[in-house]
Design brief:
This protein is mainly alpha-helical. The chain is built from ten helices and two strands, in the order H-H-H-H-H-H-H-H-H-H-E-E. The chain is elongated and about 110 Å long. This is RNA transcription, translation and transport factor protein.
Length: 218
């Protein structure tokens, strides 16, 4: 809108840029005059705007940049230590994404949560509840085993019944995962047992019969 555009230019000059003296702003303020475009063109030259009057978007952007620079120059001490709202939101998001940063290990709720996890995982109790969080350190073999990629079908946790409720949805999900991992380990153990049985059967298979001793075997 032409009227809004002219009002915008006058506002920038009056409030922020202030290139002209107050008494010299009359022609620019007369937004209904037919000569306003000429006054605006002169104004652009006076503030050294590199764009032509027809380049409205570029002109507006450049004048806004000039206004911001002058505003900052007039209030440098006020703005130099300011943090953009976007940066504040980013910091808050980061803090929310890492709740352990501000964790109070002496909080009774934290201690109760540790004890609930200890009971759930059947970890041996210790006088220092923080020690119980370090109950198992991964060996190099365990780390190497965990880093090996395994192909398989994705598991839908909601289809597996846990059998008990910890009262916490996240803890329930962790327990489901631990139970499934335990089942996988049991299956691997069963496979090794079966392999051992097969190996033993291969040794004792096709026995020779010694009629003199009345025994069957090698």
């Amino acid at each position: 809108d032409e009227t809004e555009f002219r009002n915008f230019i006058v506002w920038l000059e009056d409030q922020k840029i202030r290139h002209y003296k107050i008494e010299d702003r009359g022609n620019l303020r007369n937004i209904h005059s037919d000569d306003w475009p000429k006054s605006f063109e002169k104004y652009m030259k006076d503030v050294n705007c590199p764009f032509k009057m027809q380049e409205r978007q570029e002109t507006v952007d450049w004048l806004l940049g000039l206004a911001v620079r002058l505003e900052y120059g007039d209030n440098a001490d006020k703005y130099k230590d300011s943090t953009p709202d976007g940066a504040k939101n980013t910091d808050n998001t980061a803090k929310n994404a890492e709740p352990l940063i501000n964790l109070d290990v002496n909080n009774p709720d934290f201690k109760a949560g540790v004890m609930a996890l200890v009971n759930l995982l059947q970890i041996q109790r210790h006088d220092d509840y923080l020690v119980m969080l370090k109950v198992k350190r991964l060996t190099q073999d365990a780390i190497a085993k965990a880093s090996q990629s395994k192909e398989g079908l994705p598991v839908a946790l909601e289809k597996h019944i846990l059998g008990f409720d910890t009262g916490d949805a996240v803890l329930n999900e962790a327990a489901q995962i631990l139970r499934l991992l335990h089942i996988e380990e049991l299956r691997e153990l069963q496979t090794k047992i079966n392999e051992a049985i097969v190996a033993v059967q291969a040794i004792i298979a096709d026995p020779k019969t010694d009629h003199r001793l009345g025994k069957v075997g090698r």
